[in-house]
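Escalated from tier 1: glutamine holo job.
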Amino acid sequence: MANTKYIFVTGGVISSLGKGIIAASLGKLLQARGYKVTIQKLDPYINIDPGTLNPYEHGECYVTVDGHEADLDLGHYERFLNTPTHKDNNITTGRIYQNVIDKERRGDYLGKTVQIVPHITDEIKRNIKLLGTKYDYDFVITEIGGTVGDIESLPFIESVRQLRWELGKNCICVHLTYVPYIAAAKEVKTKPTQHSVKQLQSEGIQPDVLVLRTEHKLNKEILRKVALFCNVEADAVVQSVDVSTIYEVPIMMQEQNMDEIILRKLGIEVGPKPEMKPWREFLDKKKNATKTVRIALVGKYVELPDAYKSINESLLQAATYNNRILDLHYIHSEKVTSENVEKLLSDMDGVVVAPGFGQRGIEGKFVALKYTREHDIPTLGICLGMQCMVIEYARNVLNLDEANSTEMNPHTPFKVIDLMEEQKNISNMGGTMRLGAYKCKLEKDSLAYSVYKKDMIEERHRHRFEFNSDYKQELEQAGMKCSGVNPETGLVEIVELPEKKWYLGVQFHPEYNSTVVSPNPLFLGFIKAVVDNKKK
Ligand code: GLN
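Tier 2 regenerated the structure:
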């Protein structure tokens, strides 16, 4: 089709309504009709990217194949659409300003006063349209972070207003709001929605479609009332009721013809309703599962499940494809001790040791790993989790008592995990880790090969420290197999213990490329091993 159409998704009333899920669901429905779709997120904060943010701030930092540290919503986009996103799919206010300031320093503005309108808004519009022109998408869906009325998001909203004029019929605005239920009055309230739409209108944008987020199903009358007050066609007000899984949202939107409404408004022939077969098959599997797998996730950000978003979703997908209900338990690594580890982990079917940075909670990860190794509980270590597997093995099997990563102790006598030469002189923290997709060659006779079933894989990385190959021989002789290496640098990317049922650590992040219709083999294999082990 090309002649790219632009769909903007804004949010009002409160944050955390799930704009990302609505954007991803809409994208999924359009993609199911055969269109080429991409989704972009505009984040109103000043950070250049979320790479330097603490997970407590915005949850997990997602990584794209081209090595961009991105907002976690890009993870949803990939899990729904099953197509990769890139650096261009996530723009922050910081990056917009940085580009404009760089241009100003180069003299590109020819002596003009540089202002928010038009220079910042021009840069925002350029970044939105770039996706359409550079990659030839039929639809670019742009999610505007934050809530309308925020000071921070004003330049983004203003850019959308301008683009509506420039793009005319090729542009549409979807606004997501919240309809609260007041228990004392036993009523849902539409006033916040009305105010939110007024706010958007006062910023120059009339929404074309409204999505009402609600905990209780809304009746036709409420929807009609909102349409009337907000200047929106009656059938263009849809609702998003709480569902048991986010993966049901596309189906819920399809039932309300959201994609048809949008196609019609854009003047595109609607065509037959797509079946969404693989998607529905996944949902059926999820619904029909009766048996459970108990998985522990050992990490230090357990108070905030968003910090491990992609891992949670990957485990859920893998459990579903193994016909199991995922029963995930977050175990705070700071609280694991040799005294309580038995109580915490003995009735777990499998254990995942999470990625992370810094010293806090690290000793608990060693204790957990020693326990799962000695008790042969299926274990998956991811990034820092894999590094901890190596350290724990060096300490307790090779008897190198003070073995460590130089991240935790720069003076350790046994640097089993260490900085790469290229990393040693880096002082800037932003965007300087080993980031993005790297190839990894698997050893034929290994657990890794048995799950991936090919000898060359590609997975995404986000770390500074590496397995120190000086210890490779010693570790291998003691029983730790290095089953995956980077074919160019020889860096060890996977370790495993062949004498155990399933004990494997990966330096990369397999969770970044596990999607609903294409789950990552490593998670599938891990859960399968857990299920098989349980049967015995
Ligand atoms: N902190 C470790 C490193 O930088 C691991 C990072 C991670 O788990 N993503 O190498």
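The pocket of glutamine is lined by residues 355-357, 383-384, 407, 462-465 (CB under 6 Å).
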